[in-house]
Automatic annotation (TrEMBL), chain A:
Residues 1-31 have a biased composition (Gly residues). One of its GO terms (cellular component) is apical plasma membrane. The gene is Tmem30a. Residues 1-36 are annotated as: Disordered. Its main location: membrane. It is found in: Apical cell membrane; Cytoplasmic vesicle, Secretory vesicle membrane; Golgi apparatus; Membrane. Keywords: Cell membrane, Cytoplasmic vesicle, Disulfide bond, Glycoprotein, Golgi apparatus, Lipid transport, Membrane, Transmembrane, Transmembrane helix, Transport. Belongs to the CDC50/LEM3 family. This is Cell cycle control protein 50A. The chain crosses the membrane at residues 53-79, 336-358. It comes from Glareola pratincola. It holds the Pfam family CDC50. InterPro entries: CDC50/LEM3_fam. It is a multi-pass membrane protein. One of its GO terms (biological process) is phospholipid translocation.
Automatic annotation (TrEMBL), chain B:
InterPro entries: ATPase_P-typ_cyto_dom_N, ATPase_P-typ_P_site, ATPase_P-typ_TM_dom_sf, ATPase_P-typ_transduc_dom_A_sf, HAD-like_sf, HAD_sf, P-type_ATPase_N, P_typ_ATPase. Its main location: membrane. Pfam families: Cation_ATPase, PhoLip_ATPase_C, PhoLip_ATPase_N. This is P-type phospholipid transporter. It is an enzyme of class 7 (translocase). NCBIfam families: ATPase_P-type. GO terms for biological process: Golgi organization; phospholipid translocation. It catalyses: ATP + H2O + phospholipidSide 1 = ADP + phosphate + phospholipidSide 2. It comes from Glareola pratincola. The keyword Membrane applies. Residues 764-916 form the P-type ATPase C-terminal domain. One of its GO terms (molecular function) is metal ion binding. PROSITE patterns: ATPASE_E1_E2. Keywords: ATP-binding, Lipid transport, Magnesium, Membrane, Metal-binding, Nucleotide-binding, Translocase, Transmembrane, Transmembrane helix, Transport.
């Protein structure tokens, strides 16, 4: 019979049965199973298991081994990091004495750009390839509204998105009824100071060659960013119908003279578009290659940095820096990792010693009392 | 509907009342309504609504910190699975409805029997039933193939009892044997409106200007099966949804499981204990609900902190930063921005309580239930029944039980009744004696009494005292009367497959034992009709006229019959509880009563169950008078009727015999109880103890004792005791029982355990767990309960730990991204973190973890204590978990922060970009 005989059940004398009483009957009470449960390890909960039991015999060696492995690694990393040469100049110009102080309140479209020169001296020579970075502080490239304010398909060369950018780009989506290419707050706020480096040798200024290609991630340059496609390679024609971002002095197809570094695949642009995770960040600006094996890339001595100061940061208390750095097998200067390894290793070693002493002093008293209960 | 009027064979007349037709509908949806109705029901769950709310938040661009698919994927998954399950359930309901509605039955229409589908049967129709057919609706039995309009039914479908029951037509209609007479029958029934009381019916039949009272004895209820009766006719009184069966079946509504309630607590921020599956509050609730307000509070707290941070940031920094990042349209103040970011952070931080928590908890509970069902060591080979977890939601509560309420008979004891001793007219029989006539020690039993003189004896019956048989053979009138009473005063049905091969079907095992005893001593109950009982007394067939049966019930605690023997003398035979019967005895027999009471106490001291038998000769006129009063009372409400019967009996009677049954061995539990302090209280005193002003005192006294034994209590009192403990002690209670009288107790306790034993399956139906032997309870609690509790606690700790470690990283990142609710992780990672990446380890631990082997937890019951004290998952443990999670999240954020802040790749490119980070 198919009646749902749910809560049928009438106790002889007792009437009031508290509550709804609907709780029972999780499964259909209909089919009464009469078969015997299988005798398998799974069903009888006899699966093999391993339960680590912490004893002095396992814990002490573990501490010592961790300590002995981590400390050398940490020292190695720390020494490597310390051997890396790094030089940093803050050229924001908030101090009245700074040469760039005059440019502090520039605006985007000041023409001609405000320029300033900062002289500095390198105490040590930079032996291997040198990487030149610009650094910004208090700049929130990781703000949620900032991060999402871009149109990846537009940057990937999609013609539809080029003329009709995503809504995420608001309020930098259109300007004067023309779509902005590239759209969004990230592109709009692209860093546009120009930095030039000169070596001063007996009052003669020798410009140092700065390579501007090879600074972006390969995947970004070749996969993520593409210029729009169409007839011919004339970027001006391909970007027809779009307008430049509000803050930019010139449109995207005039970022560089070389065609494979122009438009969306301009490497400075790509580097900027890879947003930083933290409000203080540095981005690769130029490469300085070592010319020959006899001379260091940058000798110790006097240098000067020429800045075309276009990028205002003073209004939000931002700072601008220029960083010169060499690179080792583990990347740039980064003492934290080495210190972290050394710290953890030392703590483990120390704990090991403490536990060993404790074990040695008190361990024998109740070795037998481990198991019961 | 105040009362129901039904006229036989008058469809037009009955139609104007618009009674329900016999078509039943237990399904909830059809194809069109399924989607909206099901979704509506699912969104009544606060959990689902909560996630829908999150989803809506995520669709607002100003707020959305995660894209919508992070919530919609799991939500849709959960909704779909539930919907598919509901749909399949409903499909099977549709199928079974159809099958039931299309069953054939024979309906008398216009004097001709016609085959009709069940759903076309109307109230007032007369239908014909044949043997082994299901009863189509609630019928008033009119007549049957058996004499006196008798018929037999099996009510397993209704109450789980498998013995047959007798129903009888009222005499006037029992003569309407053929269709032509029935077609002319135009009686009108006025009765109570539809209700769910299976054992009560009150109504009156008006026919030919006479009134006839109707009772439950005249009714055939839907769901019963006709047995041993060739055919019968019945008048449809209640049809379809009005039948008692359908009135009893639980509404097919959306089941609320404890998970939902947990979520409700969480969302509504209601402190206190939430109520799990069974009525009453449970510690699964306490277990999980207590931290939940904190979690929710925590969520809000974090959100507020970050929102304030955002407001300050926007006010101090963001305003100036507008040259690169202007505020959204419509956001004009830092305050409003903070308000928006509060919601954004709620979305992000909600991963501390993701949907997967609820799914995982369900999966784990289900796993635990299956382990209970699969346990070979809780399988009873004799009855071939494995243990069954009938609810999946209470497993971890099994690890926290503090108070166990157990029924004795059938639960502690196995409820196999054997006639072992009796005291007749002051003489005690039944002691096991050795050759010299001394009381024998147990174990050295002599040969049992030889019953070979009696061809009808049951060979399985054993008795060791030959003196009782000798007394029978010598013709001691008291002993004869003793066994005559046993063979007459009962409700046992006999079945004689072949000559001399008698089978008794008894409603309770003690009746069966008594009638069997009488049978072996030469007073063989052969057969019964509604008006007669035939007994072979020492080989001589005697037929007694049965004038009345006053059946046993829990209030009267006795049963009586009034019979007229072939000589024409009317006698009342009565058997029942000693407390009730002894006070009704005639004072003349005071001496005998005292002797008998001594014997009774002696028997009771040996742990035997005792009954007192008595009889009284009745004057013809007295009987006439009584039956007249009974007749009149019949149609009146219940109470006065009961009273009258009492009045008739209390006239007292002759002498008392008695007899006992040995209950089989008690389990160790009872012995343990007996050892320590124990409070023994009987039903009478309990009634006083349970009064409002006494109950606290009673509870305190009871709790001071190691065990409390309540004897002679009604089912309601059982439930009241459980309720009392639940009310004043915040402890988990477990009730275990096997009979219908335990149902209320089982339902009241946090956990109800049913023993699938001899007394039907009502207890099992009401229970949360069932198995067939009491001893399995130990394993259920100490092994399964303990493990479940342990696993659930570890699971919750682990789960909250991992989610706090995961989520709090966003909190730390907030300080570096202007509190803009930017996420640290990729959205796909957030979506899949709980569903894929971290789901299996927690689940595996929650399902399989064992801290000690099962043997150990059986050996050392002390291991059970942490559960009772709720040591493994309380606020303290919870905060330790959270602290650990937060500590982990600090490491998880600040170590990468230190490492990546200035890191460059070995080709010079910066690594501190958002994507790498």
């Amino acid at each position: 019979d198919g009646h749902p005989s749910g809560g049928v059940g009438v106790p002889g004398g007792g009437g009031a049965v508290g509550g709804g009483g609907g709780g029972g009957g999780g499964g259909g009470g209909g089919a009464v199973k009469t078969r015997k449960p299988d005798n398998t390890a799974f069903k009888q909960q006899r699966l093999p298991a391993w339960q680590p039991i912490l004893t002095a015999g396992t814990v002490l060696p573990a501490f010592f081994i961790i300590g002995l492995i981590f400390i050398p690694i940490g020292i190695g990393i720390f020494v490597t990091s310390n051997n890396i040469r790094e030089y940093e100049i803050d050229y924001t110009g908030t101090e009245p004495s700074s040469p760039c102080n005059k440019c502090l309140n520039v605006s985007w479209d000041s023409m001609p750009p405000c320029t300033c020169t900062i002289n500095f001296t390198l105490e040590h020579s930079f032996e291997s390839n040198v990487f030149m970075y610009y650094g910004l502080s208090n700049f929130y490239q990781n703000h949620r509204r900032y991060v999402k304010s871009r149109d990846d398909s537009q940057l990937n060369g999609d013609n539809g998105s080029l003329l009709n950018p995503s809504k995420e780009c608001e309020p930098y989506r259109t300007n004067e009824d023309k779509p902005i290419a590239p759209c969004g707050a990230i592109a709009n706020s692209m860093f546009n100071d120009t930095l030039e480096l000169y070596r001063i040798d007996n009052d003669t200024r020798t410009p140092i060659t700065l390579i501007k290609k090879g600074i972006a991630w390969w995947t970004d340059k070749n996969v993520k960013f593409r210029n729009p496609t169409g007839d011919g390679n004339n970027l001006t024609a391909l970007f027809q119908g779009t307008t430049k971002p509000v803050n930019w002095p010139k449109p995207v197809y005039m970022l560089d003279s070389e065609p494979d570094n122009n438009g969306f695949i301009n490497e400075d642009f790509i580097v900027w578009m890879r947003t930083a995770a933290l409000p203080t960040f540095r981005k690769l600006y130029r490469l300085i290659e070592r010319k020959n094996n006899l001379q260091p890339t940058l000798q110790a001595g006097k240098y000067s940095l020429d800045i075309a100061y276009n990028y205002p940061v003073h209004s939000f208390d931002g700072r601008k820096r220029m960083i010169l750095s060499t690179i080792s097998w583990m990347g740039g200067k980064n003492p934290f990792l080495g210190i972290a390894y050394i710290t953890v290793g030392s703590i483990c070693f120390f704990l090991g010693v403490v536990l060993l002493i404790i074990h040695h002093k008190y361990g024998n008293r109740n070795t037998s009392a481990d198991i019961p209960n | 509907e105040e009362e129901r009027r039904v006229r036989a064979n008058a469809r037009e007349y009955n139609e104007k009342f618009q009674y329900a037709s016999n078509c039943i509908k237990t399904s909830k949806y059809n194809i069109v309504t399924f989607l909206p109705v099901n979704l509506f029901e699912q969104f009544q769950e606060v959990a689902n609504t909560y996630f829908l709310f999150l989803l809506i938040l995520q669709l607002i661009p100003q707020i959305s910190s995660l894209s919508w698919f992070t919530t919609i994927v799991p939500l849709v998954l959960v909704l779909t699975i539930t919907a598919v399950k509901d749909a399949t359930d409903d499909y099977f309901r549709h199928k079974s409805d159809n099958q039931v509605n299309n069953r054939q039955s024979q309906v008398l229409i216009g004097g001709v029997l016609r085959q009709e589908q069940w759903m076309n049967v109307r109230v007032g129709d007369i239908i014909k039933l044949e043997n082994n057919q299901f009863v189509a609706a609630d019928l008033l039995l009119l007549c049957s193939s058996e004499p006196h309009g008798l018929c037999y039914i099996e009510t397993a479908e209704l109450d789980g009892e498998t013995n047959m029951k007798v129903r009888q037509a009222i005499p006037v209609t029992s003569e309407l044997g053929d269709t032509s007479k029935l077609a002319r029958f135009d009686g009108e029934v006025i009765c109570e409106p539809p209700n769910n009381k299976l054992d009560k019916f009150g109504g009156t039949l008006y026919w030919k200007e006479n009134k006839y009272p109707l009772s439950n004895q005249n009714m055939l209820l839907r769901g019963c099966v006709l047995r041993n009766t060739e055919w019968c006719f019945g008048l449809v009184i209640f049809a379809g949804p009005d039948t008692k069966l359908m009135q009893n079946s639980g509404r097919t509504k959306f089941k609320r499981t404890s998970i939902d309630r947990l979520m409700n607590t969480l969302v509504l921020w209601v402190c206190g204990r939430w109520i799990p599956g069974i009525p009453g509050s449970g510690p699964v609730g306490a277990l999980m609900s207590s931290p939940c307000p904190q979690i929710f509070g925590f969520l809000v707290c974090m959100g507020v902190i970050l929102a304030i941070g955002n407001a300050i940031w926007e006010h101090e920094v963001g305003v100036c930063f507008q040259i690169y990042l202007p505020w959204d349209e419509g956001v004009h103040s830092a305050f409003f921005s903070g308000f928006l970011s509060f919601w954004s952070y709620i979305i992000i931080l909600n991963t501390v309580v993701p949907i997967s928590l609820y799914v995982s908890v369900e999966v784990i509970r289900l796993g635990h239930s299956y382990f209970i069902n699969w346990d070979k060591k809780m399988y009873c080979a004799k009855r071939r029944t494995p243990a069954e977890a009938r609810t999946t939601t209470l497993n971890e509560e099994l690890g926290q039980v503090e108070y166990i309420f157990s029924d004795k008979t059938g639960t502690l004891t196995q409820n196999i009744m054997v006639f072992s001793k009796c005291s007749v007219n002051g003489h005690s029989y039944g002691d096991v004696q050795d050759m010299l006539g001394h009381k024998a020690e147990l174990g050295e039993r002599p040969e049992p009494v030889d019953f070979s003189f009696n061809p009808l004896a049951d060979p399985r019956f054993q008795f060791w005292d030959p003196s009782l048989l000798e007394a029978v053979k010598l013709g001691d009138p008291h002993v004869h009367e003793f066994f005559r009473l046993l063979s007459l005063c009962h409700t046992v049905m006999s079945e004689e497959k072949s000559e001399g091969e008698l089978y008794y079907k008894a409603q309770s095992p003690d009746e069966g034992a008594l009638v069997t005893a009488a049978r072996n001593f030469g007073f063989v109950f052969r057969s019964r009709t509604p008006k007669t009982i035939t007994v072979h007394e020492l080989g001589r067939a005697i037929t007694y006229q049965l004038l009345a049966i006053l059946d046993f019930n829990n209030i009267r605690k006795r049963m009586s019959v009034i019979v007229r023997n072939p000589e024409g003398k009317i006698r009342l035979y009565c058997k029942g509880a000693d407390t009730i019967l002894l006070e009704r005895l005639h004072p003349v027999n005071q001496d005998l009563t005292n002797v008998t009471t001594d014997h009774l106490n002696e028997y009771a001291g040996e742990g035997l169950r005792t009954l007192v038998l008595a009889y009284k000769d009745l004057e013809e006129s007295y009987y006439e008078d009584w039956s007249e009063r009974l007749h009149r009372a019949g149609s009146a409400p219940e109470a006065p009727r009961e009273k009258m019967m009492d009045a008739s009996r209390s006239m007292g009677n002759g002498f008392s015999y008695q007899e006992k049954l040995s209950s089989s061995k008690l389990t160790s539990v009872l012995e343990a109880i007996a050892g320590e302090y124990a409070l023994v209280i009987n039903g009478h005193s309990l009634a006083h103890a349970l009064e409002a002003d006494m109950e606290v005192e009673f509870l305190e006294t009871a709790c001071a004792c190691k065990a409390v034994i309540c004897c002679r209590v009604t089912p309601l009192q059982k439930a009241q005791v459980v309720e009392l403990v639940k009310k004043y002690k915040k402890a988990v209670t477990l009730a275990i029982g096997d009979g219908a009288n335990d149902v209320s107790m089982i339902k009241t306790a946090h956990i109800g355990v049913g023993i699938s034993g001899q007394e039907g399956i009502q207890a099992v139906l009401a229970s949360d767990y069932s198995f067939s032997q009491f001893k399995f309870l130990q394993r259920l609690l100490l092994v399964h309960g303990r493990w479940s509790y342990l696993r659930m606690c570890k699971f919750l700790c682990y789960f909250f730990y991992k989610n706090f470690a995961f989520t709090m990283v966003h909190f730390w990142f907030g300080f570096f991204c202007g509190f803009s609710a930017q996420t640290v992780y990729d959205q796909y990672f957030i979506t899949l973190y709980n569903i894929v990446y971290t789901s299996l380890p927690v689940l595996a631990m929650g399902v399989f973890d064992q801290d000690v082997p099962e043997q150990r937890s059986m050996e050392y019951p002390k291991l059970y204590e942490p559960g009772q004290l709720n040591l493994l998952f309380n606020k303290r443990e919870f905060f330790i978990c959270i602290a650990q999670g937060i500590y982990t999240s600090v490491l998880m954020f600040f170590i990468p922060y230190g490492v990546f802040a200035d890191a460059t790749r070995d080709d010079g490119a910066q690594l501190a970009d958002y994507q790498s980070f």
